[in-house]
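yo, Hpr(Ser) kinase/phosphatase is done. seq:
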Amino acid sequence: MTATALKLSERYRLSAGGLPPDAGVALSAELPDAVAALISACLPGWSLAAERPAPDAPDLAVSAVPGGFEVRHDLLPGGCFEAGSPLEAANAVAGAATGAWIRAQPGWVQLHAAGVELAGRLTLLLGASGAGKSTLALEFAAAGRRLFGDDRLAVVLPPAGTADRAPEAVALGVGPKLRRPLPAAASAALRRLAEAHTARASETVALVALPAALLARPGERLPVARLVLLERRGGEGGEVPPGLAPAEAPAVLRALLPNALAPCLGPVELLAWAQRLVGLLPCLRLGYREGSEAMALLEDAP
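structure:
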């Protein structure tokens, strides 16, 4: 595709904010102004600063093309992602940035999951697209619970031979998103939260700028208490049993593996990693229809 003329701001340095150099990641990024303006909403807690002197070749580049934007980074599928809007492009930039951070930390694996802090430990919400991870996570936020992410976070296993230590999740500093329109079952509290804290929105997605007290800082860690596989009742797969029940390991692995990002691990190593994670933690299946129902079940679970 041939890039169209569009003013580019200076080269930027995109960094996981507030972390020592050996604990975070910094990328050189060439961004159109329309995309750069959305980075703070997609990556709250990260910093974006003009980079001087600009390197010869940026790690990540976004170009305007007919119909949208082209995002280039070696961790994107095929090295390139075609975005239809500045918001989609900024979200792809966020994915490349967190992926680069994961790659710089051997032993970290990025999971497609939401993390909610309950009683000082994290409940990780897993499920296919549309299972309600983001919506349920933000229902918890509307009730005052802290999030470690609604869509992606990193998990670190304890060293071998330390069965008394739980896996830890690491917040990546990604801002939560809500699909629009909100589901009919969304609570009044969630609707108020979305109305008060939506930073940017398109017809289908809203970026939610949570107060600092409700969103973990990039690099913040907490032990993981359990893995919960979400199954929305009355969805496309038909009716599922309501309530919490033990989840079978193969079902949890099927939810974990397809979107896990582990640049330092091969497929066999990643499978072994996921099997160990599932073996270390209680795994539950949650059948639910409304967020309030799911929240009550998870709050009351041991």
